[in-house]
Amino acid sequence: MSEQVAVDEVAGMVDRLIELSSVVGDDAAGIDMIAAAERLKAAAAAFQLEKITQFARSQAEAKTAMGFEARHAMRGVPEQIGLATKVSPSAAARQLTRARALTEHLPDTFALLRRGEVSELVATHVVNETSHLAADDRRGVDRELAAQLPTLGPRRAQGLARTLAIAADPAGAAARASHARKDRRVSVRPAPDTMTTFSALLPCEQGVAAYAALRRHADTLVAAGDARSRQQIMADTLVERVTGQATADAVTAEIGLVMTDASLLFGDNEPAQVTDYGPIPAETARTLLEQARVFLRRLFTDPATGIVTDCDPRRRRFDGTLARLLIYRDGRCRDPFCDAPIRHIDHIQPHAAGGPTTPVNGRGTCERGNHTRQLPGWTIRLIDPSRYIVETITPTGHRYQSRPPSAPGAQHRQHLRAEAAGSRAA
């Protein structure tokens, strides 16, 4: 079978599944179909992980042949995998690590995944819980797990894998726990209804102590008659102690809030955009503006595309107002499928090649994305200046496009223009 025939056959399976979805039987047959689909998902995951491993090995060999040092042979590989699987390079790097672990060090778990007897989540737990083990110890745990994994849910599978891993190398488990403390961090991610999840990965005793302190403070205020719930008090106290604000609502940090003048001044309901978060209701945006010190900066959008093009000239570095414009325009890293925050402002046509420092030739990227484009075989080019569409060409010749999101109000204005054009035609 040729490579292209194999690719077409795998792609054709998607159409076949769509056809089979219209087959309706009794409930017993429905459960059998659901179970079969679950096995198929696992087998497809194993197939993909194996192909990821093969691709990475081939790319590393090619880089070595080009003269790259062994430690640099994998540069650019997660980025290509991420574009193919429509995830960020960081997520793709984790996917690659998982693929190599299963195919090279956990053969029994991988065989179960390939046959659809365990889920990808269970296999991932085994990978994570055995990551600190030497190769022989890891294979030993893999053999012990194999007989029990098909009968366990994800949480029990994770617990058993952890237990066997600790027993296989107690000293290594302790060292891993010590190393994990170096990875303590704070993160924030969007949650529904204009909320965010603000979390901290901390050593267990610190996390427990911090939570207990917030709880004690909340208990004191509730006992004194505070009308807020205990959880509300704990959340407000966290914000006040971290920021030094007198109250949780007194936001002092700069927040990019992009909204139309109609929503700001005339009660229009076009959703606003918060940089690094996403859309929020216009009414919520107006409430935020009532609570905070406000500095207005006019942004100008293209009437046809609805993309931010300028704000209220010529430099080597994208900084000041120009950098702020690109951050407001792009929102997140402009590499396709990468949702990382903007860390670098990149020249699409490199400055060294004569590229100007202008909004049209600029794009916001994460640090990793800006470095990846420097690797051999990668090309970044502007293919539509009016819509700021950028094309990424990978070393394998695959092409991916990205464009900035439309600014608030753009779709509404385009709808009005279409209606007006229809009226004139009539």
Automatic annotation (TrEMBL):
InterPro entries: DUF222 (IPR003870), HNH_nuc (IPR003615). Residues 395-426 are annotated as: Disordered. It holds the Pfam family DUF222. This is DUF222 domain-containing protein. Residues 36-330 form the DUF222 domain. CDD domains: HNHc (cd00085). The lineage of its organism: Bacteria, Bacillati, Actinomycetota, Actinomycetes, Jiangellales.
